[in-house]
């Protein structure tokens, strides 16, 4: 690694550690008092759930009371039945007062039992000081006001202690007559649920208390619940975290002391079972966690993450390891390129460490563990893709030199090896193929033959004129019609190989629609002077980009791979061989046993096998031939489906060689590029599954908003970061390396995005099937009408509609004012919901692009709207 690389890595390591330190700087807050007035007390442990009658036993309750003894003056319980009925008697031994609760809901028989139990506990225990009949009954809509009042009046008549019911402030203010039936007003003040940030929380509490005191001047106002969760969703400005819980409670306790409030902190211990009813946040309201450990410092300054130094060291070490590997194999990078890699690597490592740590601190059910594992795997896949994108960006723009640049060096007096040009064809338009053959006849090369193999064309009217034209062009041109012939294009190429002239040393392959430049062979054949070289490759290029706006957009998208991706791959002898404009050493081709007929991308597969045998390839960026692009969006998708399906076929069959290097001579760089190069396509397959899962998750959020939370915000943010990063990379490289204008760059992005769904389907199908038929890209097709274009994109249109409906549903569901509709969250749209909606909108972009591309294909729109096709800029430029 160069000294500049070490310096860049060190700078970003210091910045990363400094960021951890800044985010975890200590905050001095009022100390916790020796004893608090009251706490809500639900003594359930991790494996217990009152809904299933899995309750704490007497020993567990006693242990909890022993822990709280001397730390709290009073406890509030929510039920008077089963083992909770033992709390007053046990608490008396520790000098703790009890406020008994009777839990009321829609179950009439249960309500009667609760009322009788509360009366009995109040009558039998001297340390029972208050009774609360019902908890947020009116807010939930379980009982009417008249029904609740009847229960309250019954209890007041039966006990000596003051009696109340507990509701949020807006319920009391909306039902002032309720106060006439209670001895004191019990209000729940939970700023988190209102979306209020921790800095404004005390102001909210003080303001609400003044409002209640003004509305009920003759009643004592008791804060029945006041607290902050240590984990869960972000609601508006309210962030659920351990540090914010500590900040809120320590500040509130100072406020309560100064203002003389009567309160019960929400709550003593975390209650994981509540997550089923309140979402994940319901589990995290305790001062102590479910294992009875304090969650934050009571006196010392508050730090966001107690063990942040260890996490910082892990993130820096992980980033340094990854960055060292990238620098070691990218020695020709300028400082700017190294800086880009360092920024992305350190940010990704820090995000990964933080996300895994944060998720590990949660209470996870078996289902939560499975979902978490899947989310973390998706996160790692996104990070891997982000790193490969950054690596290509840096190498494409900030390389100081090209180690394997192939330059034209024709020598007129040299010995020219014989070249056999193979042209496979199936049911192709006769005029187009005659143009291809005429261009080959005009080649400025001394010794070559052309073998045209027409495989399986049934109509003699198609192939007979080609046979006649080959005879007309002379003995260099040989025509074969083979039917039946298995193996699609690979079968035709193997057929031609067996009929190749014995003295031919080089095999050249072009597609049937290509017009080649006269200098093609003269300029590329000298590449075989190096005996290690088995492949010399020129780019695929196209001559019909001016035919329509649709084709101009496709042309812009194609060029990125051939003028950016292939250039960086060539540096590590890892180009993707493509089945046109390619030259192959015959001996190497025969050593590899010819073209693979099991693979529908036989060209890329052959290139990989030749690399595995120790051969080399070289790539020349200059274009020497131009063919025809797909005539419709449907054909454009089918072509990309074949490429993606074939890529996964190759990955499956050659997995051992690619992932472990077993029994092959593939270098690390070659394995990296073949895996990293196809990683975006694999990501499209994963993204299709993610999209369907996101729709299901969103539907669950809409149906059960109190129970189903959006994914953690850090998981949701990563796809947004990746999408933005890829767009920035594309915009920068297309303008700086290819010379496109803004319209062409936008067109390339849209065309690429429009294929995401198709690629995703191909990847998933290739994982579970083996034999996908070879699809030949039609030439000179007819333009589809608009209705047909929309029909062709029906899958994308349906998913687009589903995503937009999910966005509308979530926006409506989580934008309702707090407390107005029973059963809805008491908050405005929160940050995590907003981020999740943004994720859904980003997911919708490729589907919208597909529909738009299909419509553009059907309309007679001119290519000139994008401007003249850009000419690629020189491969290397000085750093400005």
Automatic annotation (TrEMBL):
EC number of the protein: 2.4.1.336
Keywords: Glycosyltransferase, Magnesium, Membrane, Transferase, Transmembrane, Transmembrane helix
Single GO molecular function: hexosyltransferase activity
Pfam families for this protein: Glyco_tranf_2_3
Keyword Magnesium: yes
Entry GO CC: plasma membrane
Catalytic activity entry: a 1,2-diacyl-sn-glycerol + UDP-alpha-D-glucose = a 1,2-diacyl-3-O-(beta-D-glucopyranosyl)-sn-glycerol + UDP + H(+)
Family matches, as Gene3D superfamilies: Glycosidases (3.20.20.80), Spore Coat Polysaccharide Biosynthesis Protein SpsA, Chain A (3.90.550.10)
Membrane topology: Multi-pass membrane protein
Domain of life: Bacteria
InterPro entries to which the protein is assigned, alphabetical: GH (IPR017853), Glycosyltr_2/OpgH_subfam (IPR050321), Nucleotide-diphossugar_trans (IPR029044)
Ranges annotated as spanning the membrane: 308-328, 340-357, 363-387, 678-704, 710-728, 798-821, 833-856
Protein name (Swiss-Prot/TrEMBL): Beta-monoglucosyldiacylglycerol synthase
Species per Swiss-Prot/TrEMBL record: Steroidobacter denitrificans
């Amino acid at each position: 690694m160069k000294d500049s690389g070490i310096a860049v890595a060190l700078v970003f390591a210091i910045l990363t550690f400094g960021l951890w330190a800044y985010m975890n700087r200590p905050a001095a807050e009022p100390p916790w008092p020796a004893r608090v007035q009251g706490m809500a007390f639900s003594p359930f442990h991790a494996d217990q759930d009152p809904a299933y009658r899995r309750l704490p036993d007497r020993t567990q309750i006693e242990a909890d009371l022993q822990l709280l003894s001397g730390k709290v003056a009073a406890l509030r319980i929510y039920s008077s039945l089963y083992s909770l009925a033992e709390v007053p008697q046990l608490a008396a031994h520790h000098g703790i007062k009890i406020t008994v609760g009777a839990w009321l809901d829609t179950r009439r028989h249960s309500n009667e039992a609760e009322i009788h139990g509360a009366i009995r506990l109040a009558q039998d225990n001297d340390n029972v000081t208050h009774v609360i009949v019902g908890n947020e009954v009116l807010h939930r809509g379980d009982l009417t006001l008249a029904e609740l009042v009847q229960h309250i009046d019954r209890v007041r008549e039966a006990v000596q202690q003051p009696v109340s019911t507990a509701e949020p402030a807006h319920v009391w203010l909306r039902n002032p007559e309720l106060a006439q039936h209670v001895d004191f007003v019990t209000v729940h003040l939970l700023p988190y649920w209102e979306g209020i940030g921790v800095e404004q929380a005390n102001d909210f509490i003080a303001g609400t208390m003044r409002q209640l005191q003004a509305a009920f001047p003759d009643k004592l106002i008791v804060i029945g619940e006041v607290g902050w969760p240590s984990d869960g969703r972000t609601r508006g400005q309210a962030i659920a975290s351990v540090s914010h819980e500590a900040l809120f409670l320590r500040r509130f306790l100072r406020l309560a002391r100064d203002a003389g409030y009567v309160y019960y902190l929400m709550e003593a211990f975390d209650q994981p079972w509540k997550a089923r009813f309140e979402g994940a946040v319901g589990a995290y309201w305790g001062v102590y966690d479910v294992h009875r450990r304090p969650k934050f410092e009571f006196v010392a300054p508050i730090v966001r993450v107690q063990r942040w130094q260890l996490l910082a060291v892990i993130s820096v070490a992980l980033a340094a390891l990854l960055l060292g590997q990238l620098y070691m194999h990218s020695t020709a990078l300028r400082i700017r390129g190294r800086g880009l890699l360092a920024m992305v690597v350190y940010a990704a490592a820090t995000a990964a460490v933080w996300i895994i740590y944060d998720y590990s601190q949660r209470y996870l059910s078996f289902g939560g563990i499975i979902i978490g594992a899947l989310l973390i795997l998706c996160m790692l896949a996104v990070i891997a893709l982000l790193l490969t994108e950054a690596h290509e960006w840096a190498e494409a723009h900030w390389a100081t030199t090209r180690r394997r640049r192939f330059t034209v060096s024709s020598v007129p007096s040299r010995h020219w090896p014989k070249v056999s040009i193979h042209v496979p064809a199936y049911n192709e338009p006769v005029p187009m193929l005659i143009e291809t053959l005429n261009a080959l006849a005009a080649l400025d090369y001394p010794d070559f033959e052309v073998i045209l193999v027409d495989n399986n064309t049934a109509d003699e009217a198609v192939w007979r004129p080609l046979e006649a034209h080959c005879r007309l062009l002379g003995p260099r041109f040989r025509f074969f019609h083979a039917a039946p012939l298995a193996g699609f294009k690979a079968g035709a190429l193997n057929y031609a190989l067996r009929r190749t002239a014995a003295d031919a040393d080089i095999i050249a392959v072009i597609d049937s629609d290509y017009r080649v430049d006269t200098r093609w062979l003269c300029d590329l054949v000298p590449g075989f002077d190096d005996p290690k070289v088995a492949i010399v490759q020129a780019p695929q290029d196209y001559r019909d980009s001016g035919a329509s706006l649709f084709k101009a957009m496709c042309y812009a998208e194609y060029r990125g791979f051939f003028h950016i991706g292939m250039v960086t791959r060539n540096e590590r002898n890892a180009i993707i061989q493509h089945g046109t404009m390619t030259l192959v050493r015959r001996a190497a081709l025969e050593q590899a046993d010819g073209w693979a007929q099991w693979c529908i991308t036989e060209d890329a597969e052959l290139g990989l096998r030749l690399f595995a045998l120790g051969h080399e390839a070289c790539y020349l960026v200059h274009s020497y031939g131009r063919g025809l692009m797909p005539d419709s969006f449907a054909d454009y998708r089918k072509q990309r489906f074949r490429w993606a399906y074939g890529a996964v076929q190759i990955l499956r069959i050659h997995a051992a060689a690619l992932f472990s290097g077993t029994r092959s001579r593939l270098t690390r760089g070659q394995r990296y590029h073949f895996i990293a190069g196809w990683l975006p396509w694999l990501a499209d397959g994963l993204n299709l599954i993610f999209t369907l899962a996101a729709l299901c998750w969103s539907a669950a959020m809409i149906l059960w908003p109190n129970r189903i939370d959006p994914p953690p915000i850090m998981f949701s943010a990563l796809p947004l970061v990746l999408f933005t990063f890829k767009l920035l990379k594309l915009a920068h490289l297309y303008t700086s390396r290819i010379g496109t204008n803004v319209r062409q760059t936008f067109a390339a992005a849209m065309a690429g995005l429009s294929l995401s769904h198709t690629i995703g389907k191909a990847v998933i199908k290739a994982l579970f099937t083996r034999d996908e038929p070879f699809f030949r890209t039609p030439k000179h097709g007819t333009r589809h009408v608009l209705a047909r274009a929309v029909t062709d994109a029906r899958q994308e249109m349906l998913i687009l509609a589903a995503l937009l409906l999910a966005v509308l549903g979530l926006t409506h569901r989580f934008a309702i004012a707090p407390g107005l509709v029973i059963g809805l969250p008491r908050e405005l749209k929160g940050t995590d919901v907003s981020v999740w909606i943004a994720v859904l909108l980003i997911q919708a972009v490729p589907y919208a692009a597909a529909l738009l591309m299909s419509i553009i294909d059907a309309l007679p729109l001119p290519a000139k709207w994008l401007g003249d096709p850009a000419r690629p800029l020189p491969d290397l430029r000085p750093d400005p």
